[in-house]
Amino acid sequence: MSSDNNTSAFKTIKNESELNLWKKNNLNSAQEDARYSDLSLLSSNESRNTYSAYDKKFNRSVTLIEALPDTQNEIDFINEILFSSSFDHPSIIKLLDFGVWKENTPYYTIQQGDFQPLNEYIDKTDDSEIKKLTLFSKVCDALSYAHSRQITHQKLDLENILLGPNDELLLEGWKMGENIDTKSCDDLANDDENIDQEANEKTSQDEESNKDESSKDEESKADEPSSTDSSLDIKPDLAALGLILKKLYTKTPEDDLPETISDVISQSASTEADQAYQSVDELKSDMDNFIQTRMAPKKRLGLFRAAISFYYEYENFCFPFMLLVVGLVGYSSYSYKKLYEAKIVLDKSSAETKAENKHLNKVLKYQIKANDKYLLKELKTAKALMAFPHYSKSPKAATQQALEIYLSQKDLKKYHKEMFMILLIQQDFKAIFKHKIKVPGGLMRLAKMSSNKAKDENGILKNEKDFVNILHTANNLPFERQEFKEQYIERAILYKNEIEQETEISPMVLKQLIRVWNPDWLLKDFYFNAKHKSLRLKGASLTNLVVDSPNSMGQPFLNFLKFNNLDMRQAGIESLDQLDGQIIKRLDIRETAIKDFPIHENALKVETLVITPGQFTQGALKQVPSTVNVIQKKQ
Known about the structure:
Elements: H1 16-25, H2 30-33, E1 36-44, E2 48-55, E3 60-67, H3 71-86, E4 95-101, E5 105-111, E6 116-117, H4 118-124, H5 129-148, E7 161-163, E8 169-171, H6 185-208, H7 213-223, H8 235-249, H9 259-269, H10 280-295, H11 303-313, H12 315-337, H13 341-385, H14 390-393, H15 395-407, H16 416-425, H17 429-434, H18 441-448, H19 464-475, H20 482-500, H21 507-516, E9 526-529, E10 534-537, E11 565-567, E12 583-588, E13 605-611, H22 618-623, E14 629-632
Parallel strand pairs: 10-11, 11-12, 12-13, 13-14
Antiparallel strand pairs: 1-2, 2-3, 3-5, 4-5, 6-7, 7-8, 9-10
């Protein structure tokens, strides 16, 4: 659903009923869902996932952002879509497309670029003061523009300010404030025109009545509309600008700030009306004046003023250097005139002791920082261990290493969700209760129902029916648990296969695996005849036998089962690419949307192919390998 279809009018989403209505009105079709391919996860935080993707409709690479499943988060995400689609500013993201796609998830796309959050830029670079202040000025411009449209950001921080390779700057992550005016941009423009018209009429009347010029100026100024509604709460945005300015200037708390910068930060956070800034433009004006003083050419200044300017520009260097020079001069003079050799040696020893203490303090700070980085790296390692394709190399080793990392953390409550997933995969149900793990009740039922079931010597449920019951119960969880199902079921199957040293799975387990990726598909539409090794799959809701997802290996599910004959009549499968690698004696695809036979290197091998007369065009029939016996047969 392209953003080109939007008008300037928008209505913000305020509650769950409006959220559901918006989702219904913007739900993608199956064809629109298939528009994006080659998804690769770039980043993830508590509110959204960011992917690189390929837009097949316009043949271009894009960045796709989707909301994580949480009602308030999705409301904020959709309001960001509504706000952004009404903006026209170079430093505010421009939407290419938005809508609701797979798993009822809101998303939008933007032009792909090599952008990085501003906090990463600050950590990695040490650019000049002028460049950093110029970037800050761009943030102010974008925020001022939004305020003029009666919109505040409310969540402004370094993570949702993105910087491109050529210093392009974009703001994202908008959240609706309580005082936001939800009128359309056209309405606001009409209001301005009406106010201007009233002002003109008033001026004309004043001229006719021969009022003096000063009286007309005062009335015109009184009638002029302000750029920002006085009811708009811009204090959070101003406070956020102050914090961003401080972080641009200081990498450590010990860094000194220029007096002007310190004053700007204080005024941006002030709660006193007579001391606080009344608008972003007022703050930016002070910063522009400060930048001008920093950029003044040295050749236009006298020697003394040039020295003062140089000192302020390199204050962090000049002040310690001046102290060092004064200290050396004083020390030398005192040494030559007053001190004996023993006194000099004592002073030198004292200086060395101070230097050693300073060095030890630096080492201690470095060790603390290194320890924090190590813990963060360990958590990233644990997350990577549970992701495909690394997980598939050894599910047993990966889950155990990840579990040990989480158990080594001080606050285990932060990682209950991850630990529950791992222990459920390992079928260690009693450990879930031992560690007092807390998860929503519906999920805890999975552990309770199997905690007393018999296990074999490897710690796996002895009776496969018990394992199938867990998968079946997981598949029956409400739709809002779909992400959990996708993360759990295929991982649990692969873990069990490695422990039991198996490469195949039973038909009952395969049914549950297929269903998790086809939630509306009925299990009764799966039938397997073990004696004849014949498999029957039907149902229009059956559309996925292989998926491209971070929660799947990306291999056809039917590779887990050996069979000779496959009947797919009335199935919703649209391509035989979903059977890559299969060797089938007889394949019946009548009453399906399949129109051709794949000929790539990894395509399936078939002895007999049954199709409906006219299902394949003559050109498609010619592409079928000569080794395949094609039977065109009516139902």
